[in-house]
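haha ok so turns out i had the wrong file open the whole time. this is the CORRECT one, sorry everyone. sequence first:
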Amino acid sequence: MWIADGWKDYELLDCGRGEKLERWGDKLLVRPDPQAIWNTPRIHGGWKHPDGRYSRSSTGGGSWEKGRLPGQWQVRYKNLTFQVKPMNFKHTGLFPEQAVNWDFAQERIRAAGREVCVLNLFAYTGAASVACAAAGAKVCHVDAAKGMVQWARENAKASGLEDAPVRWIVDDCAKFVEREIRRGRRYDAIIMDPPSYGRGPTGEVWKLEDNLYPFVELCAGVLSDEPLFIIINSYTTGLAPSVLTYILETVVSRKFGGRTVSDEIGLPVTESGLVLPCGATGRWTGDR
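then structure:
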């Protein structure tokens, strides 16, 4: 498992009984987590007095009890700064376990010894885009939600990267890639974090189990002659990391060679010493 253990402003203090207790800067949050189904004693005092708690509703959805929680605040990861805030469906706008992928992308970009162009698809609030820009890459950030792209711009500004070479695109990811292929634009690296299920701006249905493989096939057409890396992340329940390996090996390695490594990503739990699994990531690199 790839473990995101480089944080100072974020800490997974404890988890169990379907919830997790987290420290975001100096704010304590309690949020649901479907993986934390073990039953352990809740010793940490933060369980009783968090700054904010998201509770599931028996009729679906849920709501925040915000208590002392501000509208938004900042957290830092190494030299990056991100805006976080309580959102619908328990989210904060940042997935701290993704730090393992930010580190990986930065290492590959810095070691390349050449200009690197990165395409970040389903790019959400732009943490990966900001990380790649901070490492010196040119970035194209694509997400279908205008509000998320604006948030990503704010994250870039908070990290001192408002003038970095980033293209901020509000668009359907598949349609954008199709146009980039027709325009002859090419990218040295692709990052994608596709949803399990979604609808496009004109009602197109996205189901990961049906659409991921052809989407990766499509994206292979926008790669440069000497691509550097591809990262696919998935939070789809039941999708084994090995599936991402097979997709990348079948589509990308067949054309470019290279190698793929896939694994779970996770967060260390301070109270118990366990690691909370948080999804699967596949990484293809052009290494021979």
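The chain has a mean pLDDT of 95.
again sry for the mixup
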